[in-house]
Amino acid sequence: MWKKIVSALMVILIVLGLFVSLNGINTGSINIPNAKDNVSLGLDLAGGAYVVLEAETDAQGEELDKLMEQTQAVIENRVNEMGLSEPTVTIESKNRIRVELPGAQDAQAALDAIGKTAQLEFVDAWGNVVVTGAEVKDAVLGFDSNSIGNDPGISIQFNSQGSDAFWQATKKALEHKGESVTNQYGTYDGAQILIVLDGEVISEPRVNEEISGGQAFISGSYTKETAAADAALIRGGSLPVTLNEITTSIVGASLGADSFDKALFAGALGIAFIIIFMIAAYKLMGAAASLALLLYIVVYIWIYEFFGAVLTLPGIFGILLSIGMAVDANVIIFARIREEIAAGKTVRAAVRSGFSRATSTIIDSNVTTLIAGIVLYQFGTGSVKGFAWTLMIGIIISMITALLVTRLFIIVLAESRTLGQKKFFVYSGKAGREFEDKSLPVISKRKIWYAISICIILAGFLMGAVRGFNTGIDFTGGTMIQIDTEQQIDLATVEQILDDAGVKANVIYAGENNDEIIIRTGASLDNNARDEILDAIYKEYSLDSSNLMSADQFGPSVGTEIRNNALKSVAIACVLMLIYIAVRFELKFGIAAILALLVDVLTMISIYGLFYIEMNSPFIAALLIILGYSINNTIVVFDRIRENIKINKKMKPAELVNTSVRQTLGRTISTSVTTILAVVALLILGTSSLRSYVFPVMIGLIAGTYSSIFVSGSIWYEINNLMTKKKYHGK
After folding, report:
1. Interval 108-125 mean pLDDT
2. Is a pLDDT exceeding 50 seen at residue 431?
3. Cα-only R_g, the chain
4. How far, in Å, CA of 65 to CA of 57, rounded?
């Protein structure tokens, strides 16, 4: 009886959780916003920008840590003074600072300000540094009460050391008033003191009297806005080290909002597809799994809310992919239950036995996938790290909901006199043996399966060697800018603007009506270079910064690092999986699994070479996820081989593989279908940035499914024969 009560309460909890998540509650005393309005959005959804800055220093160890912490504090102060929405400044890869500005209305202007990262200096007319930003206590917008219009300016306060140095500088300046002096920045009056940031003069005030007491007021041709902006830069202080811009990304607010809406709609459609498929394929068990899946979604949403996690496009994709994979645990259980019913057991007994026999398979398959997620999180950056985080959380929640919630629902159904009948759990005459009567000659035809994989791999690598692989700017370094031109413009004019700026670039149309352009350069352009190009284009076509849809810049060193991290990630993931499988199974299972994964990796790379698809950061993320997904499928097959060895020790290796693959084929196909259903809507309805994640995963899903059915078992067969022969000859 208690099981029915708990099940009913669970259903109520699911319905209530979905209602609150979608609509929120606002009764006056209780105010819970809906999940969409309350979740923190990343810059690719809210619009905004990020920049990665690398410190130019030889410091190591504790000295470097201290230097970067000091740099981080100064940049945080500078960014916070800009009044931007939820900025984050983090240390990355020991000697880099990552600045994220989601929701920035004018992302390019914000990056321009952050980009001024060299030491702040007050320089006299002869080019001598008299005070640095380290000696500035405060700088705020002020107003000149002595002027007729109460003109805006900057009120500066120095510390004791800076106060004395500035007084001496103003005293000297007055002594040379009216003299023409030339320094590295230009020709100035001897009474001027320049304010220099990042090697650029941001203000040229003239000294009218000696300034003592640590207070100074700068007035002149300031507006309220420019005075406030320069005050923020001065107040930001002096950085202890020079920083170089190595990676930049800007996403327009309209593009981010469009991506968010499309991703949500596509995600809801994908979930609906999965629920329909599960009920059609597994009847009442599918309905129970669908309820557990809805609970999974509610728990996922509130975990995001609780931790204040930032939702990004890759994060949405990670959630949907984990939902598709979450169904896998249920499919493994259902396959076992149907097999037990086919063996003659009652529905009740089959449910108990099915869950018991499926538990170890679920744990092993999900732990190996979790390993790939952990490695991806460790070596990924930014959005890729968020992708890994959502996937890992999803794997953990899926195991809990499948082994506890789905189990509770199905036990209640099995114990019901009306619903606990076989016809509600299996299809007549099949009962888990959907593929038992079908011939599946995995081993006898293994050379054909090998040949198919080898031909695809060789063709792709040969094409890549001849034509070259299509590597993105995040691999090679460079800049890509996308602009909404509001009409189809002449590309030749844009190319001429780029030529005048001394920039070699490729310009193409984008958008449904060719009302967008994409500029791609092989050179990595900094803020100043991008500003020059954008300003010229804006002027030519009467546009402004709101027309900037996105801009990405990667330094050449970043591309090398991404490739190295990719290789390192794949190697570490494979080693950890090998160790786990060797401990849980046997070494030969581990070796076979890793070799099958190698086939998957090479197949994905070859497909990219064959069809000249762009390789970028999402490709690396997808590669590691597919390692986890493919090993998941392979583990299920190997678990069945291990079980069949125990049941029938006289069964020959070839028969073992054929039988095990055939017994798990229904589960493999169902899991692949549900995972594809989860992401196919994103491929069709999502934005181009989201498709860059979806497409490689779709390729990997197909490659992983093929290898788990036809390749992994065959490789185990070869290794098993080799080891058996060595053992025999040794004796």
Report:
1. 67
2. no
3. 32
4. 12
